[in-house]
Please model this.
Amino acid sequence: MATTAAVPTINEERMQAFLHHVVSDFAAALSSTLGYIGQRLGLYTALRDAGPMTPEQLAKRTGTVERYVREWLVNQAAGGYVDYDSKTGKYSLSPEQAVALTDESSPYYVGGGFYSVKAMQNAQQRIEDAFRNGGGILWREHDPDLFVGTEKFFRPGYTAHLVKEWIPALSSIEGRLRAGARVADVGCGHGVSTAIMAQAFPKSHFYGFDNHEASITRARELAKEWGVDGRLKYQVADATQIPGENYDLIAFFDCLHDMGDPVGALKRAFQVLAPSGSLMIVEPMAGETVEENFNPVGRCFSAASTLCCTANSLALGGPALGAVATEKQLRETATAAGFKYFKRVAETPFNRVFQATK
Model:
């Protein structure tokens, strides 16, 4: 006799709450695309500079089509990204919205995230195939906006914390940088982290390494823009083969977790680090247990890791530490490379900072 599966008992209140949650996620996903368009077309900047405007006025100021702008503004106001005055029919940005969405020099700027989200969404087909068949997608194979977004998204945090908090938290390093030291920035990308350090410590010399040639080209341009190219050299190099020796500080900014051979990269760092030098390893914030990542930060980083970080490591046959790697996993990676001392020395809501020495 055939059995009938039990029909689950539905709690209507909980069901409605869950459906509302899912629809909110749909809205956020779709709206991130509109946020990207707002960044690209200067819509946020125009609202900041010109003050309250109607859709027609904003379209005229930005050279865009009013009908699209009208719908865009409704979406942005519904999401709390712009303010709306029902009496005048005009939209505007509050000071907080303006800083977060348009001021790239502010530690509160988040506009770069729209570029990264758009780029990672474009990797969906490749990642779905990897779910079925294994493998992954290399960093350099992503939509170019991933690199733009990485520069724009990470710059505010590095500007706010790197020189003022993270380097002072490292034992016996800040004084050496002020006196004149050799520093390697491994996986430097567009070189924002390297340039920030070079500006702060004019007596030291800095070397940035990345295996993505286009990123190194951009890093050299940025170094000239910031006026530090005389003390800063960039070179295309794999993390396991960085040149040079006797570095006082070797830094890995938000990159160790997505490398194909993180132990090999740290072994090379061990070889070229001065006897009394230090590693600074900056990693995304993550918990020591799975459930400690059940929050907005963990949700964001695990999504980015699936679409980008883990996928890069797996494409290279690596261990795929991922963006939510535990401190224990990172310590074991450093220990396997030969480092005897490993300690978390600083953190922000979005980052953990570790120091490792021989």
